[in-house]
Design brief:
β4, α5 and β5 form a beta-alpha-beta unit. The chain is globular. It has one domain: Response regulator (Rossmann fold). With about 170 residues, it is an alpha/beta fold. It has a 5-stranded parallel sheet. It contains 7 helices and 5 strands.
Amino acid sequence: MGHWLDVFPVNNAELIAIVDDDPSILRALHRLIQSNGYAVESFASASDFLDALIRCRPACLVLDVHLNGSGFELQERLAADGMKIPIIFITAAQDDASTRRRVEKSGAAAHLWKPVDEQVLLHAIRRAIGQDAKPEGEERADPKARVTLRARRSSSFQRAHSPSLPSSSPGEHF
C-alpha cells in the first residue's frame, strides 16, 4: 500500500507506520491516520516493514499483535536492533491473559483492542510522538510513558473511566 510520496512527504508531517495482515483494517487505519495530517506507510508483513526501514524512520508504529503469527517478534527485533520506535499494539478483544501481560511488559506506548475507536487511536499516536499538549498550566505528556487504553464501543464509557481521553464524539470503529 505504501507509495514513495507517503515515505517522503512534501510537508513536515510525522510518519506513522502501520503493520497489519488484515487488508481491510490496514486500509481503514491508513485512511484515518492520513486524513488527520500524518504521513502514513502501510505494510502487510513484518518483513516488508523491516525492508522499508532502510529508507524511512517512522515516528510511531501501529502494530497488530497477531501479525502473521506474532507482532511481538517484530517488536523484539526492533528492540534488539536498538530501534526506539514507539509502538501502539492493536489486538482482538478475545486475547488471553498471557498476551495482555506480554503487551504490558513490552513497553508499548499503548495497547488498543479491536474494534479500535478512531479518537482513542489518534490520541495514542499524539501521545506516543509527543504531540499530546496538555491544557495550560499542566506539563506536556512524556512520550515514553506507557499507557494502556482499552477501546470500547461506547465513547461515554471511555470518557467516564479514562479522563485523559478526548471528549469528542465517537467516530468510526474498525
